[in-house]
Amino acid sequence: MGTCDTCGNSYDKTFTVTRGEERGTFDSFECAAQVMAPQCAHCSCRILGHGAEADGAIYCCAHCARRSGERELVDRA
Q: Source organism's superkingdom (predicted)?
């Protein structure tokens, strides 16, 4: 039985997520997202989708990128 790195729950259906050199064991996608999902450089929310990247920063959406001074990113073409 594995133990979730986020909440400490012992569970027989834990899974492992690897992101680059980072690795964790979790009992739910919610716990995995709290630790592994990147955070928006503007609002700090967890990015569960594709996000938007500019100059090495990742944003949850083009609005947050614009609020941080990026003018090239748009939500719709």
A: Bacteria
Using CA atoms, how far apart are residues 20 and 70, in angstroms rounded to an integer?
26
d(CA 30, CA 74): 28
What SS3 class is residue 36?
helix
Q: What is the pLDDT of residues 22-66, one digit of tens each?
A: 999 999 999 999 999 999 999 999 999 989 999 999 999 999 999
Which residue type occupies 64?
C
22, 49, 57, 62 from 15: Cα distances, Å: 14, 20, 28, 32
Contact predicate 64/49, CB 8 Å: no
What's residue 57's pLDDT? Answer: 95
